[in-house]
Amino acid sequence: MILVGTPLSLHGRSEFAEVIHRLTDPVTEEWVRNFLSGFPLAHRVPGWFFDDRVREGAAMPAHACKAIFNGLCTAPPPTESGTIDSPTLLLWGARDGAFSIKEQETLAGRIAGAKLKVYPDAGHLVLWEYPERVAQHTTAFLGALH
């Protein structure tokens, strides 16, 4: 399992709750652009890539966005409802303003044998900022499982 910028839990986190709950159809590209811009990037991503994420976000109906968000905030965290025993790699950007290193270390500690890879110069959207590095680390992790 590969976890990228993953919270220990989203219970009690209401930073985006009001924004999501006010969402109505049609979800506009402007709304998605503003929402995604709330995740600061330590490094630029290609404009076409960001625009593609905006188009994908605008294609999702508001009720689906709300249901996904509510599910993430109300579901029991897997590390509290059972044991994760699959090999796990956690990737996290040290400039992540959403989730802390303490959360990452706690999460890694709750998954037997988990490996935590910190990207010192990345924000929350590690995959966006360093797709090549993420691919390399993922490939190496998966290759070591054989």
TrEMBL record:
<dbReference type="InterPro" id="IPR029058">
    <property type="entry name" value="AB_hydrolase_fold"/>
</dbReference>
<dbReference type="Pfam" id="PF00561">
    <property type="entry name" value="Abhydrolase_1"/>
</dbReference>
<feature type="domain" description="AB hydrolase-1">
    <location>
        <begin position="67"/>
        <end position="129"/>
    </location>
</feature>
<protein>
    <recommendedName>
        <fullName>AB hydrolase-1 domain-containing protein</fullName>
    </recommendedName>
</protein>
<dbReference type="InterPro" id="IPR000073">
    <property type="entry name" value="AB_hydrolase_1"/>
</dbReference>
